[in-house]
Queue: 3 jobs
Job 1
Amino acid sequence: MKPTIKTSRRDFIRKSSIGAGALIMGPALSSLALTKPGKRLGIALVGLGSYSSGQLAPALQHTKNCYLAGIVTGTPAKAVSWAKKYNIPQKNVYNYQNFDDIAHNPDIDIVYIVLPVSMHKEYTIRAAKAGKHVICEKPMALNAADCREMIAACKKANRLLSIGYRLHFEPHTLEVMRLGQKQIFGKVTKVDTGNGLLITATPTPGV
C-alpha cells in the first residue's frame, strides 16, 4: 500500500502558481522567437505585485532558457528584499525614474511589464526605445489606439512584443481554431463562450 502524501492548501496553491507561471513563460518566449545558443535570456520584471511575487518570479527559478535578471520597483523595501532573495545584483535593480537606463544593461534581454493596465502603453514604448524586447501582461492596453502605438513603437525599434496570455498556444485551443478555420464541420455561424466554448456550425454534406 502506497503511503498517503499530505499536501496543505498553501503548498498546493504555491505549486499551482509556479506551474501557471511557467506555462506563461514558455509560449511568451516562443512567440518572441528568442533563442541564444549557450545563453539564457535575462528578464526584468517591471512591477513587483502579487502576480510577479507569487507566480512569475518563482516560475523563473525553474526555467531553462531564461532567468530573473533584474527588477523595476518604486518601493525601496521591495528592491532590497527581492535583490537578496533572488540574488539580483544592484546594477540590475531599477525604479521608475531611472528605468530608461536599462538600455545600457546587457544582462537584460526582455522587459516583462506587470503593471496596472493604464501603465502598459508607457512602459512598453519606453522598453522598446531602450532596445529591449517586451512581454506585456494582459489586457494589453486601455484601448485599441494604445495597442497600435505599442506595436508601432516596437516595430520602429525592431524589438519583439508578446502579450502574456498562454491560451492561444495551448493544444486544445489550437485544435478548436483549426476546426473553425478549416471549416471541418462546416462554416462557423456562432461562437458562445459563456460557459467554456461552444461552436455552432452549418454541417457540410458528407461530413
Job 2
Amino acid sequence: MTRFDAADPTERRKLYVDAITAHRTRGSGFCTLEVDDDSLTDDPDSGPDPELGIPWIQFADGTVILDCTDDELEALKALCDEFPAFKIDDLVRPEEAEGTNARISAKADPNRIAQFIDAAFRRVYDLSADVRVWVVEL
C-alpha cells in the first residue's frame, strides 16, 4: 500500500479495498481503520460520543468488528438489513466497558465489504461525507 488515509467517499472505499487486500496478502491477524480525530465535530447533537473515543472498525478473516453504543447498535442492525451478505454473529457487552462489541460476518468481495465499512462509519457513527479515515494497522 502506498497511501493510508482518504476523506472522499470513493477514495475511502478504494482505501478499504487496498487495506483488505494487503491484510489478506500479508496474512496479518486483522486490519484496523480509524476515524481521524480532526474529522470529528464538537457538536453534541451529531457524530459519536467523544467520551467513548475515536470510532474504529477492524476486518479479520471475513469478519467486520466494531464497538458501538446501544443507539449505534440499532443503526448497525438496520444497516445489516440493507446488506444481506452481512450478518451480526456475536454481540459482547463487557461489564467493564460501555457499549457493545459487534462481530459481523462479511460473506462478500472486498468491494462490497468496503461499501459496508464506509456506510458503517457514516451511518452507525453519524459521520459526515467528508470524514477522513486512516488505515492504522495492517
Job 3
Amino acid sequence: MSFYDASVPAFLQILGSLQGVLIKAEAFCKAKNVAPEVLLGARLYPDMFPLTRQIQTACDFAAKTCARLTSSEVPAIPDTEKTFEELKQRLASTVDYVKAFKPSQFDGAESRDISFPVGPTTMTLKGQQFLSHFAFPNFYFHASTAYGILRHNGVEIGKRDFLGVS
C-alpha cells in the first residue's frame, strides 16, 4: 500500500463524515429550537475545545499532515468559523485541498524527516512515525470528540455516521 493510499482516503472518509454529522446537528438545532451557538460552543469538559474548535483542528491535521508528508507549504488557516455553514465550508475546503494531492507527491514520505510544532517546541519524526503516532491519533481524537459532543447533546447520530457509511 502506498503512503498516499494509507493517508488521503482515511482523511477524506472522516472529513466527509464530519460534514454529515454537522448537517444532522444543524437540523437538530432547528427541530429542537436550540440556538446553534449553544451546540457549536459545547464541550465535553470545561478544559476541552468546543465543537467548533474540534472541527477546525481535525481539518488542520488533515491538511497540514498532507502538506508535511509531501514537503509542500503548510497552509495557515485562521480559525474564524462561528456558524454551521462556515464549518461546513471549512470542511469542504479541506476536502478539496486534500483531494488535490497526487500519489506521487507522497513518494518517500515514510522515511522523510517531518518537523512540526508541538506547543512551544519543534519535534522531528520520520514520516511513518509522524503519521501513525502523531497525526492520525490527533486527527481521530478531534473528530471523535466532535462526534462525542454532538451525541452527548442529543444529536441522533451513531457509529455509522462517524464512519460515514450511513
